[in-house]
Amino acid sequence: METSYETIVIGGGVVGNGIAYHLSERYKEGVLVLDKKYPMSGTSGSTQAWVWVHNKTPSWYAEFNMYSAELYPYLSKKIGDVEYKRTGGLSPFFNESDREKAKQLAESYRKIGIKIKVLSRDEVLKKEPSINPEVAGATYSSIDGNVNPFRLIDMYMRAAKKNSVHYSTYNKVTAIQKYEGKYIVVSDMETYVCKNLILAGGTWTRELGGMLGINIPVNQLRGQILVSEPLKPFLNYTISGLRQANNGEVLMGYSMEKAGFNRATTLDVIQETANMAVHYVPSLRKAKVVRAFSGIRAMPEDGFPILGKIPGFENLFVAATHSGVTLSPLIGTLMTELLVDGETSIPIDRYSISRFN
Amino acid sequence: MLDKTTIICRCEEISYEEIEEVIDQGARTFDDVKRLTRCGMGPCQAKICTNLVANIIHEQTGRPLHKIPLPRMRMPLSPIKLETLTTDSTSFSAVKSVLDEVELEDGKVR
Ligand SMILES: Cc1cc2nc3c(=O)[nH]c(=O)nc-3n(C[C@H](O)[C@H](O)[C@H](O)COP(=O)(O)OP(=O)(O)OC[C@H]3O[C@@H](n4cnc5c(N)ncnc54)[C@H](O)[C@@H]3O)c2cc1C
Ligand code: FES
């Protein structure tokens, strides 16, 4: 069993796997991905998986998300069908008073080249006839869509393995030490040595940082989702709050609660989610719910991704963020550039961990 | 011993062979197999296929059956209409709207 690697990625979610796959395009050996369970068991397996740009603020952060959404069609060509669909995204509002805010949003995005339309009630209903006729309007952007997160990880892994990336799953990292310019990574099954170490442990990244005495300020934010039985295709767009998957299931939910690492689903949030869903799309009343699940977002303290080098630790990198599905191809691309070329094609200084000092 | 083409998950039409393949990829629990193949996501919500899959994992990996975790059981245990879950409440606390999250500063988007 090999124990010496050029680069080790800790965490095999959409973020860690996105990095591993993109790295494997540039160098063909010496990459190991470690995961304490099987990838998808973390947050990447319990997500809405919208590839979502519009409504993100400030506009520079929306721009960052847009670059990633732009990469998706190429990614699908490279690694195979990940069921990415650029459906367009619709965010309905039910109070006329929100129209002004929607217009401000469209205006601030116009400057960076993201087109958002503010739709009238009739325009919304024409686009998405199933929406509640009480709707006042919606913001709309054609860049938004969604992807199948399980397919995404599976295809990343298959492509990365083809390019000689090694995986060790059900193998938890328990300690990390720095020793003579290298990192020693102790796990349940083995002790590894590497030059470059990438911390991509999602909502557990604070714990990984702690192993080296580094504070990575990532907190937990739970989200709960309801899944309907497969329905015949009837939703045209990714609606902020619900979407219909390829197999006809509707995934409903956009909730946030502080509940630590507790992945329970709770009746109060399930009820609120049901209320939201039937408020947006009344015909869902009669749809049957077959599943509920919850996931724990990694939420950096100021809400923005933590990406890049960790100052004071040579060859140590971090990538921890919410919206990881949307950002995965871009984070994979940029982290690869950082490792291989020493600089990135799009500046990521803004996302440096040093901002927390 | 089951034939490779035997359907293990009838709802999602997943064969023995497909399950064997993902165990080969590293899947070790029912939930791993489910995420990789959709086995267990059908209308019966894994009632029919759970034990069959556990047996295959046991056969392939030699892991004792009692050490193979059961799928996470979640509400609702059997399908119910969404309207059964709705309430009269019109206020939201945990559930957000993305537009509400857009912050304005001096009347402009931040
Ligand atoms: C309800 C919900 C809805 C969401 N909706 C969207 C959306 O619509 N669009 C979007 O872009 N994002 C969405 N997100 C966020 C998105 O799902 C996450 O940002 C993304 O999945 C994070 O990926 P990750 O790879 O960082 O984390 P994870 O998938 O959690 O991966 C981290 C991995 O690290 C491993 N790990 C941790 N510690 C160790 C250790 N010590 N040793 C070894 N391995 C370890 C874990 O096992 C895990 O597999 C949503 C999240 C939730 C909860
Ligand atoms: S048989 Fe597998 S979900 Fe029904």
Low-confidence stretches of chain B: none
Tell me the radius of gyration of chain A: 21 Å
How would you name the CATH homologous superfamily of the largest domain in chain A?
Answer: FAD/NAD(P)-binding domain
Number of helices of chain A: 8
Q: Provide the succession of SSEs of chain A.
A: EHEEHEHEHEEHEEEEHEEEEHEEEH
Per DSSP, what share of the residues of chain B sits in E-state strands of 2 or more residues?
5-15%
Question: In the residues of chain B, how many domains can be counted?
Answer: 2
Residue-averaged pLDDT of chain A: 96
What would CATH call the class of the largest domain in chain A?
Alpha Beta
CATH topology of the largest domain in chain A: FAD/NAD(P)-binding domain
What is the percent of helical residues of chain B?
Answer: 25-40%
Major sheet size, sense and barrel closure of chain B: 2 strands, antiparallel
Number of beta strands of chain B: 5
| Low-pLDDT sequence parts of chain A | none
Question: Total number of β-strand segments of chain A?
Answer: 18
Describe it for me?
The complex is a heterodimer of chains A (357) and B (110). Chain A contains 8 helices and 18 strands. Chain A has 357 residues and is of the alpha/beta class. Chain A folds into 3 domains: 2-47 and 150-217 and 302-356, FAD/NAD(P)-binding domain, CATH 3.50.50.60; 89-142, D-Amino Acid Oxidase, subunit A, domain 2 (D-Amino Acid Oxidase, Chain A, domain 2, 2-Layer Sandwich), CATH 3.30.9; 218-300, 2-Layer Sandwich (D-Amino Acid Oxidase, Chain A, domain 2), CATH 3.30.9.10. In chain A, the strands form 4 sheets. In chain A, strands 1, 2, 8, 9, 10, 11, 17 and 18 form an 8-stranded mixed sheet that branches. A 4-stranded mixed sheet of chain A has the order 5-6-4-13. In chain A, 54% of the residues are buried. With 110 residues, chain B is of the alpha+beta class. Chain B has 2 domains: 7-67, BFD-like [2Fe-2S]-binding domain (Arc Repressor Mutant, subunit A, Orthogonal Bundle), CATH 1.10.10; 74-104, no CATH class. Chain B contains 5 helices and 5 strands; from the N terminus they run E-E-H-H-H-E-H-H-E-E. Chain B has helices at residues 16-25, 30-37, 50-61, 82-85, 98-101; strands spanning 7-9, 14-15, 80-81, 104-105, 108-109. In chain B, strand 4 and strand 5 form a beta hairpin. In chain B, helix 1 (16-25) crosses helix 3 (50-61). The relative contact order of chain B is 0.13. At the A-B interface, helix 3, helix 5, strand 12, helix 7 and strand 16 of A face helix 2, strand 3, helix 4, helix 5 and strand 5 of B. Strand 16 (288-300) of chain A pairs antiparallel with strand 3 (80-81) of chain B, so a sheet runs across the interface. The complex binds flavin-adenine dinucleotide and FE2/S2 (inorganic) cluster (FES). Flavin-adenine dinucleotide binds at residues 10-16, 34-37, 39, 41-44, 46-50, 52, 172-173, 200-204, 208, 223, 225, 295, 297-298, 321-326 of chain A.
